[in-house]
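Lab channel / #folding
Pinned by the channel admin:
"Please post every new chain as: sequence first, then the structure tokens as a reply. Keep commentary short and put observations after the output so the thread stays searchable."

First post following the new format, from NK:
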Amino acid sequence: MVTSLLMKLDRAEESARQEYVELSGQMEELQERLAVAERRLERLSIAREELTALEAADELAEAGRGEASDDDHAGAGHGDPGVAGHGEVPQERPILRGLRKDAVVLLASSDEPLRAREVVRALGQQDVRGQVEGMRARRKRLVVDGWLVEREQGLFAIASGVNGFAGEGGAATS
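Reply from TO:
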């Protein structure tokens, strides 16, 4: 009697072991697929960001050409267009759309610098590596474009003079 119970236990244990091995294999395959999908999502997110930046730069260039011809006809436009009445703040920053705009608005309303993961969460996006890395790339580009400053490595705040904000990420003055 005890021998037959031990045999049944052996069979059940072997069946459970086989199921474990099978599920572990499936899980490894799914983790690999997830990593591939995450890398693809990250690359697409960065590509979208770059294309948006290029499009914004083209729009600014076209607008600048139109304004320059208007100024030339009016006899103006002979000074430095980046300085007039704007202090150290660039006269024109690239136009913000989508997540870039959302990130700038969020950081402008924040009392302290934020990390990419915090921005992703605050914007209601999935907290996955691809989204976080894409947001890091966006914020780095926003620094180059003059919208943000990187206070410490990975901590970003609104740039001086953006939307009535004084100081690097300081509180609104208006």
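NK: The longest strand covers residues 148-152.
TO: also worth noting, Strands lie at 148-152, 155-158.
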